[in-house]
Design a protein that fits this description.
Blueprint (H helix, E strand, L loop, with lengths): L10 H28 L4 H9 L18 H14 L1 H21 L2 H12 L5 E4 L15 E5 L2 E12 L6 E7 L9 E7 L5 E6 L10 E12 L3 E2 L5 H37 L1 E2 L2 E2 L4 H34 L4 H26 L10 H9 L8 H13 L3
Parallel strand pairs: 1-4
Antiparallel strand pairs: 2-3, 3-7, 4-5, 5-8, 6-7, 9-10
Helix pairs in contact: 1-3, 3-4, 3-6, 4-5, 4-6, 6-7, 6-8, 6-9, 7-8, 8-9, 8-10
């Protein structure tokens, strides 16, 4: 971290950052390559993270969380992702995409039932919006939810559900009134094991391989009307509000990946010698280090600023879409740039699985894609700046 911070961290912030760093380096880093290779879900370390309060950092203690602020969440997530981005995305989905939406839009009964076990780390939560033919344009989703008495009957197929194969609870978005497009989407809380819900095959992925991702198939899946999150037609608003929070988390994830790659490259540029001097002394390498460091520090400020904007929104209800999109866009593209340069600085060793550089490189790519692609972030930013809908 840069020594010239624009704002100082509280003792509480430093405490959770240091606790996350120690846990990540001692518990996660030694097993990251093994779980990346096998693609197995890291149940044991995720459960330990829950015990430390990492799976519900911003959730009030009465609902099983740690009761801390958004900056504390970002600091902890950044440290986890320095060790392994797969552990980080599991943590991010639990906190941002799952718990945040229920905390903001759920009833008291829903908070107690669906947040408490997840925030305390006993269970896993997931978020399901994307479909095979509906990604960035959620209004074209084909999944349907039909009211039938005091229940809804859900039918459809969802894709790219992080933690899909292992989650205990899902926030699921379905169309209740197709003619209204976005305004016809509603959100539901669905428990794993509900008849009619089938988890599809686990997706083989380029990166974040220890995080389990799958399809969800709904075939006449009946859920109580009491499990609807918000009112009918509120689904799109809920999804976009939750994605703002999620984008802050992905920015922190990208920042963590970039920092890990940068530190490895910086050390190597000092230790590795060629033609009688450290390779960092050559301008071609030194300028890479300069650009990497500058982009990382800019990403940090954008990400922490977005965290503060989200925290402010809890008090006054203001939106932080612009701050979240800018942080996510810049940090994710920084992660790709830094990991690319770090591999290049290491040469052949950077291409080898004996070092974690190639894993950082593979993990970084998804940060430009999920929870809104870089193109979507630019669309959000430009439309907000130009006053366009």
């Amino acid at each position: 971290m840069s020594k010239s911070m624009l704002f100082s961290l509280s003792e509480e912030h430093k405490m959770i950052r240091d606790a996350a760093r120690d846990f990540a380096q001692n518990e996660i880093a030694p097993i990251a390559a093994e779980f990346d290779e096998s693609g197995e879900f890291p149940h044991a370390t995720i459960k330990k993270m829950g015990g430390m309060g990492f799976m519900g950092i911003e959730i009030p203690e009465e609902y099983g969380g740690a009761g801390m602020d958004t900056l504390a969440y970002v600091l902890a997530l950044e440290e986890i992702c320095k060790a392994d981005a797969a552990h980080g995305v599991i943590m991010s989905v639990n906190n941002s995409l799952y718990c945040h939406g229920i905390m903001k839009f759920g009833t008291e009964e829903q908070k107690k039932k669906f947040i408490t076990p997840v925030a305390s780390g006993k269970s896993i939560g997931a978020y399901s919006l994307t479909e095979p033919q509906s990604g960035s344009d959620a209004g074209t989703m084909r999944s349907r939810a039909r009211r039938d008495g005091d229940s809804y009957v859900l039918n459809g197929r969802k894709s790219w559900v992080t933690s899909g194969p292992v989650a205990d609870y899902y926030v699921v978005f379905m169309m209740t009134d197709p003619e209204k497009r976005q305004k016809g989407i509603s959100a539901f809380l669905v428990e794993a094991g509900t008849p009619g819900l089938t988890r599809g095959k686990k997706e083989p992925k380029l990166g974040i391989r220890a995080s389990a991702t799958s399809e969800l198939i709904f075939e006449n899946c009946r859920v109580p009307a009491a499990n609807r999150l918000g009112e009918e037609g509120d689904g799109f608003k809920i999804a976009m509000t939750v994605l703002d929070a999620g984008r802050v988390g992905i920015a922190a994830q990208a920042l963590g990946i970039a920092e890990a790659a940068y530190e490895a490259a910086r050390r190597y540029a000092v230790e590795r010698e060629a033609f009688g001097q450290p390779i960092g002394a050559f301008q071609g390498t030194g300028f890479k280090i300069a650009d990497m460091k500058t982009r990382i520090e800019a990403s940090r400020l954008l990400t922490y600023n977005a965290a503060l904007a989200k925290e402010k929104s809890k008090q006054d209800g203001s939106r932080y879409s612009l701050e979240a999109s800018m942080a996510k866009l810049f940090a994710s593209e920084t992660a790709m740039y830094v990991t690319h340069q770090a591999v290049q600085i290491h040469g052949g060793m950077g291409y080898s699985k004996e070092l974690p550089l190639e894993r950082y490189f593979r993990d970084a790519k998804i940060t430009e894609i999920y929870e809104g692609t870089s193109e979507i972030q630019r669309l959000v930013i430009s439309r907000m700046e130009l006053g366009l809908k």
